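A protein record pairs a chain with a discrete description of its three-dimensional fold. The following entry can be read in just this way:
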Amino acid sequence: MKPIVAIVGRPNVGKSTLFNKLVGDRAAIVDDQPGVTRDRLYRDTEWNGKEFVLVDTGGLEPRSNEFMMTKIKEQAEVALNEADVIMFIVDGKAGLTALDEEVAYYLRKKSKPVIVCVNKIDNYLSQQDDLLDFWALGFENLIGISAEHKSNLGDMLDLVIKSFEDIEFPEEEEGLKIAIIGKPNAGKSSLVNKLCGKNRAIVTNIAGTTRDAIDTVVEYNDNKYVLIDTAGIRRKSKVDEALEYYSVLKALKAIKRADICFLLFDGSEGLTEQDKRIAGIAHEEKKPIVIVFNKWDLITKDKNTMNEKREALLAELPFLSYAPIEFVSALTGQRTLNLFGISDQIYKEYTRVISTGLLNTVINEAVIMNPPPTRKGRVTKINYATQISTAPPKFILFCNYPELMHFSYMRYIENKLRESFGFEGSPIEIIFEKKN
């Protein structure tokens, strides 16, 4: 699993500026698919061959000093609980403040690697004195940087990478890893308990890699499953913004570890914005997803209810059109055991390999039925297609003008692949490359 590096600090010290610079000024997500989260606070990145997840905890806009103190403490606690390495950003021009000392107090509570990044040091030689006060915070790693001018960021990242050497990741249990994601009171714990009922053999309970998470290893029909219960993922609050960072970090850790995600929601209430946000994270991480409509026993039904609910859900989550929907009751156990079989089938689709010859036959037929777009007399020709990886299935289509390929045509090709090969529940990645 990749280490998580959180950027923390009081407002207006340059956290978001640093985040944008480190991810290449592309922090804003642009996606033509409606419903996908676009204000993502995290990004996979790397330095000198070491990959990690960078998390921005910026965005707090305190309204009073009392509010500021409370929110900054909570923000520091989030980083303390969920991150592996913490980049503590302070303002070199403003100097050491009481808020900086408050954040440092919370960061010192546990033995997490902390790197104090003194920002706005535009001239390293003439501003050496601006760094001295920050040594009083009590951390051994301190460096002056300028996020705006990208000054000294390489040395800062060297310190981050060096901190990874001290991180010990727990060994993962064998079995298909299933992350159960969703907001509180949706029935996640009830579902886990039902799936671990007396007619299943519970092998062991082990501490998960996230706080408040328990990995439960279950055997069913001679197959082993690791259920990752992400208790504590909360809906976004207009006042308590720190909870949003907490939920994103918790969900992100669970989703990255998982082979399959169950998006569980309370069917009697319907989907919430937080459910959609968490679904968007799983989708962006290219994980297979099963939409689990819980509390089906509380719904007044007729023979068309299930189809109507399915259509309504897909209308709210159009980017998950490939995901199966299962209607269950964690309380009564209705259809809960079906989830094991669905998981096995989806994982087969997620790791499916298509032969190059068969793939090109399907692509050629799709092109004959609907040729690629043209622009200003330039005709796009798809010469060759190949699958380069699984989990998720990833395809490269070589053509003469990849820049002419519109999202709608990419979706057309994806639909043709699904019609021919299935891939139910599994995301598909399609890339158009210039013919060599």
